[in-house]
Amino acid sequence: MEIISIIIYVLLGIISLTGLILIVINLPGIWLIYISTIILAIMDKFENITPLILIILFLLCLLSTLSDNIAIALGAKKLGSTGWGMVGAIIGGLVGAIFGGIAGMFLGPLLGATILEIIFAHKDATQGIKAGLGTFIGIIFSIVFKFSLSIGIIIFVLSRVLG
Predict the structure, then answer these.
(1) pLDDT tens sequence across 136-153
(2) Cα 102 from Cα 87, distance rounded (Å)
């Protein structure tokens, strides 16, 4: 194996690990893992990772991205959030990510949903907090799902290439 190939494999591993870290902080790191898989498939001349496998992995990554929104919406709805809570969660997530770093990305949606539920949906503080908590729970479930799926993809790809 050439030294260039080894360097590329190491870089692909680092990119995949970066993807896992991004998932933990609720960013779409699964796409970095997918891009690494495409590069690996090209280097392998599609012998172990075929175009069909790439299509299936693409669909799984797409499902992961969509599940993020679905899990947050279901968590919020389950605990009584209205559309205002959903809007608040989105705004809070963006503001939290910009100004609060990692903690802001988790607390922003909770606070945003709670505040908009209280102000615009005219809920009392307890109901607003409950709706905000539903959003937070949805985010946690989404992260766990995306992280698990990403680990599964990495293990699958490594087993195909190394096995």
Answers:
(1) 888 888 889 999 999 999
(2) 20
- 163's CB contacts (< 8 A; 6+ apart) are none
CA distance 146 to 76: 19
**Integer Cα distance of 80 and 137 in angstroms:** 13
In whole angstroms, what is the distance from residue 10 CA to residue 16 CA? 10
Cα 63 to Cα 18, 57, 67, 76, 121: the distances in Å are: 20, 10, 6, 20, 31
Structure tokens at 116: 């908009």
Overall average pLDDT of the 52-56 stretch:
98
Q: What 3 state SS string does 21-82 have?
A: HHHHCCCCCHHHHHHHHHHHHHHCCCCCCCHHHHHHHHHHHHHHHHHHHHHHHHHHHHCCCC
Residue 53 has pLDDT above 70, yes or no: yes
Structure confidence by residue, pLDDT tens digits, 88-114: 888 888 898 889 888 888 889 899 999
Q: Which residue has the tokens 């990495």?
A: 154
Distance CA 14, CA 17 (A): 5
**For the whole model, what pTM was predicted?**
0.83
